[in-house]
Amino acid sequence: MAAEPTNAAVPAIEAIELRRSYGTVSAVNDISFSVRQGEFFAVLGPNGAGKSTLMHMLTTVTEPSGGTAKVLGFNVATQQGEVRKLLGMVFQDTALDERMTAGENLHIHAVLYGIARQERAEAVNRALAWAELEDVDKRLVRTFSGGMKRRLELARALMHRPRVLFLDEPTIGLDPQGRRHLWDRIASIRDEGVTVLMTTHNLNEANACDRVAIVDNGKLVALDTPAALIEAHTPGVGATLEDAFLALTGRSLRDQGASGRDQLLSFSKRGGELTR
Ligand SMILES: Nc1ncnc2c1ncn2[C@@H]1O[C@H](COP(=O)(O)OP(=O)(O)OP(=O)(O)O)[C@@H](O)[C@H]1O
Questions:
Q1: Known InterPro entries for this protein (predicted)?
Q2: pTM of this prediction?
Q3: What is the bridge-based pairing of β-strands 40-44 and 87-90?
Q4: Which residues line ligand 1 (CB under 6 A)?
Q5: I need a surface site. Which of 102, 115, 195, 256 has the fewest CB within 10 A?
Q6: Phi, psi (rounded to 5 degrees) for 49
Q7: Which backbone phi and psi does 256 adopt, to 5 degrees?
């Protein structure tokens, strides 16, 4: 079920003065940017910077407090149905039903996204092959490793051939083998012309993207190619994207001032993995 082609000049994603507040907290504060169709785009930021909130607004999960966001020209606040058909998403919390098999999880997605009955079995098989999970399609998902679950989620998100894919820290919690394997799968999406917006704390992954947006305290503080960010913010031989990131966002630990609830939330969002 391929989506209708869109004029190539229309941005894949557009945020205009986008805002979201929680009480007195400005989680996202007047952020504007535009992502071209087919672009690989990373959003980087310290803990609590507003990355997930931004992604949730762009995917119609969270209503903006102000401003506008569009996916391929459709407004996320007023044209949610159109937007949802065009996008795929993999968030940090698994959306798989662990009491079902891999094949059943994919089949349900095919039904929900309107893949025609006669095409479903082939779509499920194609997704299993893409995720390299053909041999375990009848196993319950709760018996899968973290890497297998993440590959299954990604394959599922691609089943209805979305034009724009949103990935919230896609490789977090995986061992180097699992991370590399999943990253190779993500990189293969690039060849198919799908636009990808991902949040990540992994600077190598951000470095491999076409452009990187750096957010801090709900604000967009820089947006450019990795090479241009390094050149502009930490010129010098051997400077890295991590150097540029630290130059732009400082070195203070963001969880330090957070409430106990925030720290627990942040910890559990990472599946119990301590990252700092
Ligand atoms: N549902 C909510 N209710 C209240 N505050 C929230 C809620 N969601 C996010 N926040 C607050 O908004 C701010 C931004 O949070 P967000 O989760 O978007 O950051 P993040 O950049 O994704 O962080 P992390 O890297 O730790 O996942 C934080 O101060 C957070 O505590």
A1: AAA+_ATPase (IPR003593), ABC_transporter-like_ATP-bd (IPR003439), ABC_transporter-like_CS (IPR017871), P-loop_NTPase (IPR027417)
A2: 0.87
A3: unpaired
A4: 22, 25, 27, 45, 47-53, 262, 266, 269
A5: 256
A6: -70, -25
A7: -55, -45
Distance (angstroms) between ligand 1 centre and the Cα of 165 equals 21
Minimum-distance ligand 1 atom for the alpha carbon of 52: 22
Query: Block means of pLDDT (10 residues each) for the chain, length 276 residues?
Result: 64 98 96 97 94 96 96 96 93 88 95 92 95 94 92 92 93 87 87 92 92 96 96 86 92 59 42 35
> Quick one: which atom of ligand 1 is closest to the CA of 266?
26
Ligand 1: residue whose CA is nearest its atom 28: 48
pLDDT of residue 255: 62
CA 58 centroid distance within chain:
10
**Sheet with 74-75, side-by-side order of all strands:** 25-35, 13-22, 66-71, 74-75
Tally the C-alpha atoms within 13 A of residue 42's C-alpha that lie toward its C-beta: 25
- For ligand 1, the distance from its centroid to the CA atom of residue 167, given in whole angstroms, is 16
Angle, CA of 95, 101 and 103, to the nearest 5°: 90
pLDDT, residue 199, reads: 94
Q: How many CB atoms lie within 10 A of CB 75?
A: 15
DSSP state of 5: P
Q: Are the C-beta atoms of residues 91 and 35 closer than 8 Å to each other? A: no
72 forms beta bridges with none
